[in-house]
Design goal:
Blueprint lengths: L1 E4 L10 E4 L9 E11 L1 H7 L18 E8 L10 E5 L12 E5 L3 E3 L13 H14 L7 E5 L4 H12 L3 E6 L4 H7 L3 E4 L12 E6 L3 H7 L3 E9 L5 H10 L3 E4 L6 H12 L7 E6 L3 H9 L6 E5 L5
Helix pairs in contact: 2-3, 5-6
The protein binds NADP nicotinamide-adenine-dinucleotide phosphate (NAP).
């Protein structure tokens, strides 16, 4: 099979597209022929020696934690050959998803409803699970509450906006001006241009802030958390900094580490099938062009998600 791999941590030049052995199945695993895989910032952070690189114990390392595809071998599980599935697996342990075949734990994947596009679903699992867990698990969002999403046009942010709206909340999003129409389509009642507008008018008014940016951006939004409210901060690299600022300002900050969940994926798949939730694809590349997708993701201004397709020639 073809796969993207690295032989050492480094820059984009370390990414190779070449032939690798198909993975072997262990108990409780299925072999998936991938249709598409999603690009997340954790992928290039890990390849460059940050992110989840502490969990990488051997090379070549195949990056990637999310995929869509069809079951090629169900192993000893209840799945059937040709079932359409998607998932985020093993995170933060290596999962090897930038490949034409993946061995996936059956307990961490879900069947896709017929109405859901299989290629799009390659980019759905990680961002939607993160958004779900930030909004409903860490954030405990209730109908009628005020929510602010920092980075509302990005992979996680645009799904967090839609989930919060679906749950009956009032949503404010931050993004560059050219993305404000997109934010309105997602369901944001107010859009803030973070380049030029301050958040002062929202002081102590938010029940929940989903911080998809972290660092100084997260810290500068802390005064908007109202008493009893919470900020869920996503980027692991700045979480200690944001938590410490929260303690100093008496604002509750919760870090998050996205966990695989077949149960949540089933619910998310239903929402997508019912057109309550929509994944916006920023751009699609063939798997072989992963380096181009990484460079775009590193720009920090992707709108929605980037997808790598595995069923097209390089
Ligand atoms: N802890 C976890 O389990 C977990 C899970 C998933 C992701 N993450 C982390 O969460 C972060 C977001 O992930 P993602 O996939 O959503 O990233 P992404 O899609 O690459 O985010 C890009 C978006 O960030 C926005 N942005 C950049 N700087 C901003 C600022 N100062 N204020 C507001 N928006 C800003 C951009 O908006 P404009 O283009 O409009 O400027 C763009 O739409 C990453 O650091 C990722 O590693 C953590």
């Amino acid at each position: 099979m073809h796969a993207i791999s690295i032989h050492q941590f480094g820059g984009l030049e370390e990414l190779n597209y070449n032939k690798q052995s198909r993975p072997q199945l262990n108990t409780g695993e299925v072999l998936v022929k991938t249709t598409a895989v999603g690009v997340n910032p954790i992928d290039w952070k890990t390849c460059s020696g940050g992110g989840a690189s502490g969990f990488v114990t051997e090379f070549p390392f195949i990056p990637g934690w999310e995929f869509s595809g069809v079951i090629a071998d169900p192993g000893d599980t209840a799945f059937n050959v040709d079932d359409a599935v998607y998932g985020m697996i093993r995170f933060p342990q290596p999962a090897g998803c930038y490949a034409e075949y993946i061995a996936a734990p059956a307990a961490q994947i879900a069947r896709l409803p017929d109405a859901v596009d299989l290629t799009m679903a390659g980019g759905l699992a990680t961002a939607s699970l993160t958004a779900w867990q930030a909004v409903f698990v860490k954030g405990d969002l209730q109908p009628g509450q005020q929510v602010m999403v920092l980075g509302a046009a990005g992979g996680v942010g645009h799904l967090a906006v839609q989930l919060a709206k679906w749950a009956g909340a009032h949503v404010t999003g931050t993004a560059s001006l050219h993305n404000h129409e997109f934010l309105a389509e997602l369901g944001c009642e107010r859009a803030i241009d973070y380049h030029h507008q301050s958040l002062d008018e929202f002081n102590s008014s938010m029940d929940l802030i989903i911080d998809c940016v972290g660092g100084e951006t997260g810290i500068s939004a802390l005064p908007c958390v109202k008493p009893g409210g919470v900020m869920v901060t996503l980027p692991s690299v700045t979480k200690e900094q944001v938590i410490a600022a929260g303690v100093a300002q008496r604002r509750r900050v919760e870090p998050i580490l996205c966990e695989p969940s077949a149960e949540q994926l089933i619910k998310i798949g239903e929402l997508v099938a019912d057109e309550e939730l929509k994944l916006h694809i920023g751009e699609t590349f063939p798997l072989a062009k992963a380096a181009e997708a990484f460079a775009l993701s590193q720009s920090g201004h992707v709108c929605g998600k980037l997808i790598l397709t595995c069923d097209q020639p390089a």
